[in-house]
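Forwarding these from the shared drive since the link keeps breaking.
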Amino acid sequence: MALDAFALILTMLAIGMLFARLKLLPDSAAEVLNRIVLYVCLPAAVLIYVPRLRVDVSLIGVIVTPWLLTLATVALVALATRWLKFRRDEHAVLLLGVALCNSSFIGYPMVRALVGEDALPYAVVYDQFGTFVLLSTFGLYVLARYGGDAPPTARGIALRIARFPPVWALLLGLTLMPAQPPQWIADALQKLADALLPLVMLAVGLTIQLRMPRDEVKPLAVGLLLRLVVLPALALPLSLLWGMDGGMLQANVLESAMPPMITAAALAISHNLAPRLAAALVGYGILLSLITLPMWAWVAGRFA
C-alpha cells in the first residue's frame, strides 16, 4: 500500500470537511470540482491506463462482475426489505446505494493507493463497462419505477452514455492511443490524472453528511453491510472462477468493495427517495471504507 497516497486521501477529506464547517468556499465548490474531475482528470486517467490493458479471457470477468453483483443486490435487498419491513423509498435507495459503487471518483485513487498503477487499467474496465453502464440502465430504471419518472428509453440511455466524457477517452484508449505515447503527452496526462485523488477527496469532504434519523439506522446498517462486506466477499470467488490473479484480481475485489456512488445518491435525493438515508449511505460509507478497503486489499493480496 502506498502510505503517502493513503495519507493524502485522509488529509484532503479532512480539509474538505473543515472547509465545509467553516464555510470557506461557495456552496457550488464541490460541484465545480466534480466537473473538473469528470471532464479532465478521469479522461486523462483512462487515456493513460486503458492502452496498457492485458487482454485475455479473465478480463471478461472484470466486466461481468458488477452485473452479477447487481443481481445479487436485487435479491438481498428484497429479502432485507421483506424481513425488516423497509419503506418503498428506503428499498429504492438501497437498490441504488448497494448496486452502484463509487468505482471511478474514489475507486481509481484507492486502487492506485492500495494496489498500484498496474492495477488501474482493470479498475477502468470495471467502472466504464460495469458501474457506469449500470447507472445508465439499472439506475435509471430504479428511479423511474420508484421516483415517478417515465421509464428510460433505449435512445435516452444511448445518448446518456455517448455524452459521458470518459467514454470518448475509453474509445480513444482502446483504438488510437499507444501504450507508450510521446513523453510530453504522457507527462501532461499523468499530471492531470494525479490531480484526481486530491480533487475528489476535497469534493467529498465538502459534501459529506453524517446526520442520521434513528428510524433509518436499520436500512443504513443493511446497506453498508451489503456494500462494504457482502458484495466484495462474493466478488472474490467470482474473480477466482474467472481465473484472475495479480493486480486484476485485486482491482476486481477492491472495486466491488467501494462505498456507494455519490451520483446515485444525488439522483435519489433529487427524486425525493429517502434523501437522508441516501446522504448517510455515502457519508458513512466513505468513512468506513477507509477501514474496510485496506482489509480487502490484504485479503485479495493473499489470493493474488
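-- next protein --
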Amino acid sequence: MDEKEIDALFSRKDMTFEEAAKFFGDRIPVTTSQFFKLAEQYRNLAFTVSGYSKAEILKQFQEELLAAIKDGNTLQDFRANMNDFLKERGYKGVTPFQADNIFRTNVQTAYNVGHYEQMTDPAVLDARPYWQYDAVNDSHTRRSHLAMDGRVFPANSPVWDTWFPPNGYRCRCTVRSLSKRQVEQRGLKVEEEVPSGVKLADGRFVNILPDPQFDTNPAKVRFTPDLKGFPEPLKKAYREREAGNKPE
C-alpha cells in the first residue's frame, strides 16, 4: 500500500469518529521506559514514540496525530509537520517508514476504538449481533491475521478481547458487524472459539495469535479521572499533565 492509498484510507469520511478523537486525545504522553513499565492491558491508555523522551516532542506527535483523526490530515502532512518541528529543535526528522508506522498504528487504533463504540451501541448490537474479522487479503497480510479473515463470532464473544484490531504494528484489519439475516444469507459459520492453529489455502500451517503487545482490545480499558486502581506510572503522568508539568 503506497502513501496515496494510505491517505485515502485515513481520509474516509465514514471513518471520522468523535469517539476516535476522544480516545486518542485522552491518552497520556509518557516516555518509552515508562510505557513498557505498564502492564500490557494499560498501554492503550498511554501514548509514546520510541526514541523521544521530552514532553514537548511527545505532545507534538500526539497533536499531529489528533489532527489526522479530527481534521483528515494525511500521512504526508503528518511527516512534513513533524519534521519541521523536530528539525527546529535540533532533531533528525522521521523516516518515511517511521512516519508510516507511527501514523498508521495510532490512527488505526483510534478509528477502531471509534468503530467499537458505535458497534456496541445497544440498538446496533440488537440489530447486528455478530462480528466478522476482515483482513486485507494481499501479500503484506500477516499469516495469523489472514487466518482470522472472514471468521464470525458473537459480538459478546471473549474472542474480541484479544482479536480486536489493530493486532500488530501497521495492521490494516477491521471488524464489521452483521445481522442474523446477513449471516444466514451468506452461509457464514458462527464460531465460539478461535482455533489454536489452521492450515491456509496455500498449505501453510499458522498459529492463530495476534502480534506481541497487540493481544488486548484498546476499547475495553478507558482512562478516566478516577485514578483508583491504575498503575502508579500512569497516575503520575496523568497528574503531571493535568498540572501542566513535564514528565521526568
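Residues 3-116+221-243 form one domain. Residues 57 and 86 are 8 Å apart (CA to CA).

- D.
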